[in-house]
Amino acid sequence: MDLGIAGKCALVTGASMGIGRASAVALAKEGVKLAVAARRRNLLEALQKEIGPLVIIEQDFLAEGAAERIAEAALKGLGRVDILVNNAGGSRRFTLESNDAQWDEAITLNFTRQRQLAHRLLPQMMARKWGRIINITGKSEPEGLNGAFAAKAAMHSWSKGLSREVGKHGITVNCVPPGRIDSEQIRRNYSPEFRKKESEHDIPVGEYGQPSDIANLVCFLASPLARYITGTVIPVDGGLRRYQF
Known about the structure:
Blueprint: E1 9-13, H1 18-29, E2 33-38, H2 41-51, E3 55-58, H3 66-78, E4 83-86, H4 100-128, E5 131-136, H5 147-166, E6 171-176, H6 184-189, H7 192-201, H8 211-221
Parallel strand pairs: 1-2, 1-4, 2-3, 4-5, 5-6
Helix pairs in contact: 1-8, 3-4, 4-5
């Protein structure tokens, strides 16, 4: 299937590994021109060797002014940004004793920077009457206190509201909450025994997903074929979640 995005320009954050990296690879295969942002430049350079020319943006997402610098670098390097994949973020398990600084960091990393980046790039999308904002978020079934889950809930609400404002400009806004995706973070946080048990008992398809499973949906949502899909939250989780909607 020709997705019709060859020649488009995309910015992917958190692109050094996992879902972000897979999304960059998949978009490149579709002929999309890319800017990629992450903290570890060496991993972005390794990605460049694999898929070809990239605009590399080495940036700590938590740093003050990070969203502005990333947006400016992407626009300077590509000329425009048609597709934004907001993938940067990180889980923050908390306790009742977690302090305001910890909560502020979690909200900044998982919501504020994504919002700032999207709003910085929106005017040039609106001027061309076309754009795609795809937010990689998280599940809505927290096992306990987690700063990332709270921030991702904010992402879902903000994205829905934004979609209603920008649809008339040919811009769609969608969220993709991954389930258990085999990644560096997952392997660090969960033992092989836990992953095996969960796959067998909790995931209907019987296995953890791959970053490419998310990337495939990212490419579709980025395409003109998905023009009538906006304001949605589309889980990619092998059936792990138990709620209906």
